[in-house]
Amino acid sequence: MAVLEKFDVTIIGGGLLGTTISYWLSSLYDIKIAVVEKESDVGMHTSSRNTGVVHSPFYLNPDKKAKLAKAAFLSHDMWKTFAEKRGLPWNVVGTIEVALDDIQHKILEKYMAWGPKNGMSEKDMTLLDGDEIAKKEPNIQCHSAIHCKTDAVVDYGKYTKSLKEESQKNGTKFLLDHKLESVENLDDCPVLGFSNKEKLNTKLVINCAGGYSLDVAKKFGLATEYSSLHFRGEYWIAREQYTNLVKTNVYSVPKYPDFPFLDPHWIIRSDGKSEVGPNAVPVASPETYSGYVGDIETFISKLADVVTGSTRKLLLNAEFMNLIAKEWLSSLSKVVMIERVQKFMPKIKPDFFSERGTAGIRTPIITPQGQFLPDVLELEGKTSYHILNYNSPGATGAPAYSAYVVKALQEKGFLQYKTRKTDSIWNFDLL
Ligand SMILES: Cc1cc2nc3c(=O)[nH]c(=O)nc-3n(C[C@H](O)[C@H](O)[C@H](O)COP(=O)(O)OP(=O)(O)OC[C@H]3O[C@@H](n4cnc5c(N)ncnc54)[C@H](O)[C@@H]3O)c2cc1C
């Protein structure tokens, strides 16, 4: 039998998370690290197919989303440093989060307390009334809003590719066009088998497979009681003459914070274009970027076919099913999508948008009780560590969150190697 190439650590998935973890590990240790990625380059999925916002975590509940909130706060300045050192776009445009009535205003008041609880400085957020907002941005109409000064817009796909180069300089091997298919020897130096028939041997596996991370965890006999759903977020690009209608991101308070649906927003891209989106249309897989099923009845019955396990319980939730129908309509019809934004930008019209933007897919994990899991889920096997439900604002939080993963692996005794000093972009000891 051929002798297999052996690695100390193998990371499944070359998205922002897997690539950033490889960067930290390779700058801290002189060990053999592989990142296996099924595509021909890193960052081909969610890490390139998102809104591109470096979020300040004022809108994240510090009790329910503590890990994502802390990581987002710490990572903001880390990304800024990275962009400066690598000459990548970093454009601070700010965000206006609008409330349309008194009830939503109460939620903004809650956000004003959450921001500082998540580490933000009070001076970076201002609660303004509708008139004050209209003075700032005449094309916004609202009851009140938070103006957050610090949000930036970037191209996370470019950031992922740039981090790959940094990680390669430290010795990480990127095995592209390698789709993980099988795992043997779970308890001692697993053997990973790929669709191209190659195999490798590794002491530790870190699962960062994004929308497929639940499937990978199940190959290791973990997370068997969880299931997942996939929601496609679609965008429409504003024609050039309407790009500057509003010069900042505009989000609205979500009506149902326990569901992963944010009403479509007005967003500024790092290349200066403006878009409306994303909605959240349920689709069959983490990579179904186009296509839907005929009419709403067929669509709902198809949904019942594709969901398994605990997700079935969600289909009995009337509020959830109503939302699904609304999201589905906004996928079929540009008019319906734009109507959702007209609530706070009354001047925009469907013909201001002629081209669809790049869709991306969120894959939230559903608990055994049939509920959306609010925060990241980390699971540990004998020779493996799994990161599931790494959803928005996961791109924002990647630098600090991935350092946190490395610290957790150190504490659990998975990384018993001598550390080394390299010229790292970020300071691990300060996190
Ligand atoms: C519509 C949308 C908008 C968003 N907007 C924002 C935003 O504005 N700001 C923000 O901070 N976050 C945002 N996010 C969230 C953010 O993009 C994600 O949290 C982040 O990109 C996740 O990175 P990842 O590395 O976990 O996943 P991915 O980038 O999906 O990477 C996973 C990788 O694993 C690979 N893979 C999967 N299975 C296998 C296998 N079997 N073998 C080998 N490789 C495999 C895939 O090919 C993929 O490259 C958004 C997400 C969506 C969907």
Structure description:
The protein has eleven helices and 24 strands. Strand 23 (377-380) and strand 24 (384-388) form a beta hairpin. The longest helix has 21 residues, at 66-86. The model has no long low-confidence stretch (mean pLDDT 93). Strands 1, 2, 9, 10, 11, 12, 23 and 24 form an eight-stranded mixed β-sheet that branches. A four-stranded mixed β-sheet has the order 6-7-5-16. The chain is globular. With 431 residues, it is α+β, with helices and mostly antiparallel strands. The chain has two domains: 6-47 and 157-226 and 374-430, FAD/NAD(P)-binding domain, CATH 3.50.50; 228-366, D-Amino Acid Oxidase, Chain A, domain 2 (2-Layer Sandwich). It binds flavin-adenine dinucleotide (FAD). The site of flavin-adenine dinucleotide has 39 residues, from helix 1, strand 21 and helix 11.
List the helices and strands and how they pair.
Blueprint: E1 6-12, H1 16-28, E2 33-36, E3 53-54, H2 66-86, E4 91-92, E5 95-99, H3 102-117, E6 125-129, H4 130-136, E7 144-148, E8 152-153, H5 156-169, E9 173-175, E10 180-184, E11 191-194, E12 199-207, H6 213-219, E13 227-228, E14 230-233, E15 236-238, E16 249-252, E17 265-268, E18 274-277, E19 281-283, H7 296-306, H8 311-314, H9 318-332, H10 334-342, E20 353-356, E21 360-362, E22 365-366, E23 377-380, E24 384-388, H11 394-411
Parallel strand pairs: 1-2, 1-12, 2-9, 5-16, 12-24
Antiparallel strand pairs: 3-8, 4-8, 5-7, 6-7, 10-11, 11-12, 13-22, 14-19, 14-21, 15-18, 15-20, 17-18, 23-24
Helix pairs in contact: 1-5, 1-11, 2-11, 9-10
The structure holds flavin-adenine dinucleotide.
